[in-house]
């Protein structure tokens, strides 16, 4: 008999601790060494719902929301729904006192279906259609963020009642992140450059429209920002811009929306944005800029998406195939890949991987976890360490997959999209069912 068989409780002490910076807040090991989230063994979820599957820890989402509200008690926190937009998320975040930002009619409908108070919804987008503007105005969304002078005119023509608006401004800040998600610089499609003639023209159009009320400005610097100092520069520029608008239009804007982009860790040791430091930076820079410009302090709005949703999510894959290419790497191929996680190929993102259905004392070896799709670049984790006794049928968990995974999933290779399963207090419940081949065929209406 082994020591573990005599004292099964020792198992917890001997299993490695999952990195709390990456794994959901409720992650534990059970007596058998299996990883559990929300007191449900991930293996049981895989057995019941199949793989690949996205698991979402409700308590983690609520914990992130509460942390924001504690650290930023005087700011309005608005969850950026694009990270993970499903009714349950909308419900959880609004129960925790957050608003929701949406950027399409689809996201708007899901937020409303999740019970979000329309006045706490912000509509974004650089190419909103007339139908989307109309739907948002009719629903009574709190704010619509205007992206151009022509959109301001269009919105004025579709609103039947008064509508509060913000204007999106690019403060000219380069966060030196991935080009695809650097939105604070001037030469990209979102917003209007600070102190520009086009911005001035947009303010004038809004001011002339009797039904539009300009209450503030918005900026979003980009994603995965880990240095809070970028926000200091943003606050300084935005308050100076608000001061310019006061001078030119005799209008005092009362709201400054600083967008999201709060960086998180994806791998052990990655840096993440320290929210307490961010709060200090915003506070100091706001004091500073408001005194310098003699401008009344506006309300601050923050729009975190990833920092609310990412760490709540774990993707489960079943190992389908293990092979070592002579003179090359060992590939562990799993039953999902770039269709459920396009972030590796799009942004070169890296991920941590863990064996979650059992505890192994075997030495680790370096492998590449590869997806199932028909591209050699479909690799989920390169040079990751997994136990040498890993075998076909084992279950792998990839943390930090709660944001921009379900929302960016595709049916590439006609692979059906995974379900989303929520866990809380020992109960797993499906939020989104697995897509079926019948679903795929049902959209085929001609031949
Ligand atoms: N507010 C606005 C106006 C945004 O455009 C975004 C993200 C956010 C807030 C939230 O940013 P977050 O806190 O989640 O970084 N697909 C990419 C991310 C694109 C984000 C686009 N906008 C990824 O998977 O990394």
Question: Secondary structure elements and their pairing?
Answer:
Elements: H1 3-6, H2 10-14, E1 28-29, E2 35-37, E3 40-41, H3 42-49, E4 53-57, H4 58-71, E5 76-80, H5 87-95, E6 99-102, H6 105-113, E7 121-123, H7 130-139, E8 143-146, H8 149-158, E9 163-170, E10 192-193, H9 197-208, E11 212-218, H10 229-249, E12 255-257, H11 275-293, E13 299-302, H12 306-309, E14 313-324, E15 330-334, H13 343-347, E16 354-355, E17 364-370, E18 379-387, E19 395-399, E20 420-424, E21 427-432, H14 437-442
Parallel strand pairs: 4-20, 5-6, 5-13, 6-7, 7-8, 8-9, 9-10, 9-11, 11-12, 12-13, 15-17
Antiparallel strand pairs: 1-2, 2-3, 4-14, 14-15, 14-19, 16-19, 17-18, 20-21
Residues 80, 82-83, 101, 124, 181, 220, 223, 259-262, 303-307, 343, 347, 404, 408 line the site of ligand LLP.
């Amino acid at each position: 008999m082994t020591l573990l068989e005599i004292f099964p409780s020792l198992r917890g002490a001997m299993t490695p601790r999952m990195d709390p910076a990456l794994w959901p807040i409720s992650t534990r090991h059970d007596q058998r060494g299996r990883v559990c989230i929300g007191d449900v063994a991930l293996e049981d979820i895989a057995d019941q719902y199949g793989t690949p599957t996205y698991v979402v820890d409700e308590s983690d989402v609520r914990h992130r929301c509460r942390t924001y509200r504690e650290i930023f008690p005087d700011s309005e926190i608005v969850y950026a729904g694009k990270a993970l937009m499903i009714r349950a998320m909308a419900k959880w975040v609004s129960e925790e006192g957050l608003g929701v930002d949406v950027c399409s009619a689809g996201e708007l409908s899901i937020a409303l279906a999740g019970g979000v108070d329309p006045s706490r919804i912000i509509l974004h987008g650089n190419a909103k259609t007339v139908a989307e503007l109309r739907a948002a105005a009719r629903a009574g969304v709190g704010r619509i963020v205007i992206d151009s002078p022509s959109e301001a005119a269009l919105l004025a023509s579709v609103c039947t009642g008064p509508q509060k608006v913000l204007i999106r401004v690019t403060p000219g800040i380069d966060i030196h992140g991935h080009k695809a998600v650097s939105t604070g610089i001037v030469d990209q499609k979102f917003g209007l450059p600070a102190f520009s003639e086009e911005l001035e023209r947009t303010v004038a159009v809004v001011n002339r429209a009797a039904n539009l009320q300009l209450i503030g400005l918005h900026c979003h610097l980009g994603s995965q920002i880990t240095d809070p100092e970028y926000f200091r520069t943003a606050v300084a520029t935005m308050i100076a811009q608000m001061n310019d608008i006061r001078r030119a239009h005799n209008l005092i804007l009362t709201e400054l929306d600083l967008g999201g982009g709060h960086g998180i860790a994806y791998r052990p040791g990655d840096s993440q944005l320290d929210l307490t430091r961010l709060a200090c930076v915003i506070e100091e820079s706001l004091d500073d800029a408001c005194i310098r410009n003699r401008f009344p302090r506006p309300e601050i709005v923050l729009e975190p998406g990833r920092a609310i949703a990412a760490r709540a999510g774990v993707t489960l894959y079943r190992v389908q195939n293990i092979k070592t290419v002579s003179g090359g790497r060992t590939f562990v191929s799993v039953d999902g890949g770039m269709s459920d996680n396009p972030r590796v190929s799009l942004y070169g993102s890296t991920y941590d991987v863990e064996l979650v259905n059992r505890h192994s004392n075997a030495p680790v070896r370096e492998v590449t976890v590869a997806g199932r799709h028909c591209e050699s670049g479909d690799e989920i984790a390169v040079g990751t360490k997994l136990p040498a006794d890993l075998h076909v049928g084992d279950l792998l968990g990839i943390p930090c997959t709660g944001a921009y995974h379900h929302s960016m999933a595709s049916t590439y290779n006609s692979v059906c999209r995974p379900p989303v399963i929520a866990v809380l207090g020992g109960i797993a419940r499906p939020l989104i069912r697995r897509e079926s081949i019948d679903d795929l065929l049902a959209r085929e209406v001609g031949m």
